[in-house]
Amino acid sequence: MKRFLGCAAALGLVWAAPALTETTPVPGTPAHPSAPAALPTILHAGKLLAVPGEKVVEQATVVTRDGKILTVRSGYLDAAALGLPADTAVVDLRDRFVLPGFMDMHVHLSSGGSARNPMTRLKEGPEYFAINAYANGYRTLMAGFTTVRDLGSPGDSLFALRDAIRDGIVAGPKIIAAGEGISPTNGHADAHGLRRDLMEAQIRPGVCDGADDCRRAVRNAIKYGADVIKVHVTGGVLDESDAGTGQQFTDEELRAIVDAGHAMGRKVTTHAHGKSGIDAAVRAGYDSIEHAMWADEESLKLMKQKGTWLIPTVWPITWVGDTPEKVRQGPFKNLAPNSLAKLYQLGDQPKKMVRAAIRLGVPIALGTDNGIAPHGTNGYEMLEYVEAGMTPMEALKTGTVNAAKAGGVNDRGSIAPGLAADIIALEGDPLTDIRAVLSVDFVMRDGIIFKRDGKAGETGL
């Protein structure tokens, strides 16, 4: 059954992984909306890592139906042996390494390219950012990331895209969306560097001050569509504020935010750079810490003790540059002086931090903060983890089973009966060479094939 027919298929274009940039062409709107494939599909895997962290099985069969994993069996079984109709479609992945679709717990799909310019927000509405997010989401899906957590986008742009993907209107990864982040006045998610009248004219629904006001902001975020609550406990590097990267919400405000989010069944995660903010968020019961750039051993040991997930976002540091010389030659060389000063100070500290976290056994789930680095380059985060001391298997876990646990995504992250049929295939063996994660040849999400034999566009069987 043919599900999605995009411009790429119509023009015979081939998506060449992993050489993705923010100008890579993206297929247009598919011709036919689609629900998960009702008919069964048989996949024959040369090597199958059904549950990262467990044993690789040589020569395996996976059957999907109605968007779910129906069965996982040893050997190459045909339709008759499986009790399926004789004309059941078979996907030959016998020369491929098959594993669950990757998951990224920290992206900004609406950002990147011209959308990164703060002036764009003053000129364009949420529709513009939703379309940009669609293009970036498609790139991410083609890189093998079938689930992402978007932690900050303007207005309702990501809620609309999330729902359109869910309903089969457009192709993309499953999205867990935060919408606008929760921030104190003049915090990381507030407006900076503009004239007073322009800053005051911008609607920032997540900006709050005081415990009661912050409870209101969290409840409103959930009311209007947030799947997860994203909080800005500290200042950030790339904003134009000169208020630093230390703790900005009070302990009382932090407790009010996390209590309000948990009371309504949402995970609560936080952007945190400075040690004081990291420690305060961990003590307050936040589910995960994003970045944790200036976490020291005391902070990391506290995270391990509390079972707080670390989402390190190391890859963008390599992309932007971890020395002043690299920054001045890179894509962020024209940042505002306040931002550049913070970036220079940051240096390679995130890489030192993640090495310490690995050594201490802090639970780590994959997050890239892409929107800073180009969308579709998410797999490079696993290369960073291996360079920092993880084994390839441990790195694969961060982007599958660990990410599923950190994000509360209970139906994905492994290949097992009853779970969502999110399956990818690599050209090489990532346990031998982790760079194989950059060569994704096959992508299935919810039982729908979006990429096959390295080609994107027309999908399905």
Task: Please tell me about this protein's structure.
The protein has helices at residues 7-10, 79-82, 118-123, 126-142, 157-166, 196-201, 211-223, 251-263, 275-284, 297-306, 315-320, 324-329, 337-346, 349-360, 380-388, 392-398, 401-407; strands at residues 41-48, 57-65, 68-74, 89-100, 102-107, 145-150, 174-177, 228-232, 267-272, 288-291, 309-311, 423-426, 440-445, 448-452, 455-456. The chain is of the alpha/beta class. The chain is built from 17 helices and 15 strands. Strand 2 and strand 3 (68-74) form a beta hairpin.
Note the overall shape. globular
Report low-confidence residues grouped into runs of 5 or more.
Answer: 1-35
Helix content: 25-40%
Strand element count: 15
Structural class, from secondary structure content? Answer: alpha/beta
Main sheet: which strands, in order across?
Answer: 3-2-1-4-12-13-14-15
End-to-end distance: 5 Å
Number of helices: 17
- Major sheet attributes: 8 strands, mixed
Strand fraction? 15-25%
Look at the structure and give the mean pLDDT: 87
Rg of Cα set: 22 Å
What are the salient characteristics of this protein?
17 helices; 19% strand; alpha/beta; 461 residues; eight-stranded mixed beta sheet; disordered N terminus; four-stranded parallel beta sheet
